[in-house]
Design a protein that fits this description.
This protein is of the alpha+beta class and 454 residues long. Helix content is 22%, strand content 34%. It contains ten helices and 26 strands. It has a nine-stranded antiparallel beta sheet. A nine-stranded antiparallel beta sheet has the order 13-12-11-10-15-16-17-18-14. Strands 21-20-19-23-24-25-26-22 form an eight-stranded antiparallel beta sheet. The relative contact order is 0.07.
């Protein structure tokens, strides 16, 4: 056999060896997966297949919940939206649980499982159900005893967190927000609180606007704060809204409310009396079936009208900026945002750099420059426009921002300190032909080498 045939034979053997080795590896992994799945407590039912459950809690309360249109709702002991995070966490624990030990050929009654302290029954597609009966904790207190309904000869020793799910109260399973919020569809917000009344409306893709009591751009932070207040309210408790209790809680004829309109309907949360000792405020939604006890910061944290106005000299989002230039004295820096391949987030690359030692390049942050302009606020517009003493021509520093496709987002020119007020400088936006006062820390926040106020 010549050398060529030997090489071909060796190559064929290598191929066959790799092929059969691959099959063995695949078979081994499949066997391991099947073994792991067969040892799961919730064998034969995956987390995503569960569409309802019933739980007898240690308190004696029975909780029933089911999934509707991708969201979990409680059916018993009260009909309400459920806390998706709590339920999904519970399902994940049970779906991944493997017993620490299986006690074979035993009598469950000897472990207190003939009259269990609680149970949880999962229902999946096709009407399949799996029920776990739970007893107390074992003497080591790190595990608990569990049996499966219909299995009368085995007891499973499982990690105690499965048993702890049954120590929860009904309240833990409830949605604790004051309102359910469709953030994407939200079009209008009305705040009607004592000494703080205004309306915000979404203006397409250009952001939000104060439309009452005047028309001004609105801070996105004001919108976000209101959404968080009513969505992540952290309700401490719920009470049935009887006429007597409504009167006691100041909710019989409430005058204060926050209203949200998502284009499909209007939702309101009304506020009543405060409880200073408990740092709480009582509230109810428009349906008026229940009274909620909320942390008082839900009410006090709503941004005041004066703070809700967007005072950015240039209204933009930080992610919109693809390039900026900074000119001061004989120095010029131009940086462009690039998508990072190997690291999360973006990186900034120099397109132009002059008037400074190359060693300071590593000290300059493109994100800091953009952030400084984003957080800059007009403290007061200057009547009469630019004057020689303002130092705005050519300016102490000129920052230009561009978006995609070379679109100029705007220019900010920083000038001299103001004569009459401590901590302020003059600034202007040429495109808008406005001169205003801003905090002098804007210069510091730019964090550019050799740029300072004299």
């Amino acid at each position: 056999m010549n050398a060529k045939k030997i090489l071909i034979a060796l190559a064929a053997l290598s191929f066959l060896a790799a092929y059969f080795f691959g099959i063995e590896v695949f078979k081994k992994r499949a066997d391991e997966k099947a073994k792991r799945e067969s040892s799961l407590i919730l064998e034969g039912m995956k987390k995503d297949e569960i569409n309802s459950f019933t739980a007898l809690l240690a308190s004696g309360d029975i909780v029933e919940a089911k999934k509707q249109d991708g969201e979990w709702v409680l059916e018993k002991p009260v009909k309400s939206r459920a806390d998706d995070a709590v339920i999904m966490s519970m399902l994940e624990r049970h779906a991944a649980a493997v017993p620490a030990r299986v006690l074979e050929e035993v009598v469950p009654a000897e472990y207190g499982l003939d009259t269990p302290q609680g149970y949880i029954e999962f229902s999946g597609s096709g009407g399949k159900t799996i029920r776990f009966n739970m007893a107390g904790y074992n003497p080591a207190d790190g595990f608990a005893y569990l049996s499966k309904e219909g299995d009368d000869t085995r007891v499973f020793l499982v990690e105690k967190h499965l048993r702890l799910d049954l120590d929860k109260a009904v309240h833990d399973f409830r949605y604790k927000g004051a309102l359910v919020v469709d953030e994407e569809g939200l079009k209008k917000i009305r705040v009607s609180l004592t000494g703080n009344r205004y309306t915000l409306e979404k203006k397409g893709d250009s952001g939000w606007e104060i439309t009452e009591p005047f028309k001004k751009p609105a801070k996105m932070q004001a919108v976000t704060a209101i959404i968080n207040s009513v969505k992540n309210s952290g309700a401490k408790g719920f009470e049935e809204a009887s006429p007597e209790l409504l009167q006691k809680r100041g909710l019989a004829r409430p005058a204060e409310y926050i209203e949200l309109d998502d284009g499909r309907g209007v939702k309101r949360v009304y506020f009543g009396k405060k409880d200073a000792e408990k740092h709480s405020i009582y509230a109810m939604d428009g349906a008026g079936r229940e009274i909620m006890e909320l942390p008082d910061y839900v009410y006090s944290g709503v941004m005041k009208l004066a703070d809700a106005e967007n005072r950015q000299p240039i209204i933009f989002g930080q992610d919109e900026v693809s390039k900026f230039s900074a000119e001061y004295g004989d120095k010029k820096i131009v940086m462009a945002r690039k998508k990072a391949k190997d690291t999360p987030g973006d990186r900034w690359e120099y397109e132009e750099f002059k008037g400074l030692d190359a060693g300071v390049k590593k000290l300059i942050s493109g994100s800091s420059v953009v952030s400084a302009v984003f957080w800059m606020e007009k403290k007061e517009e200057v009547a009469g426009g630019e004057k020689p003493g303002h130092g705005l021509t050519p300016g102490r520093a000129v920052i230009k921002l561009w978006g995609d496709n070379g679109k100029l987002l705007g220019t900010v020119v920083a000038g001299n300190k103001t004569e009459d007020e401590e901590g302020l400088i003059y600034a202007k936006v040429p495109e808008q032909n406005i001169v205003f006062k801003a905090e002098e820390r804007f210069i510091t926040n730019l964090n550019l080498p050799e740029l300072a106020l004299e």
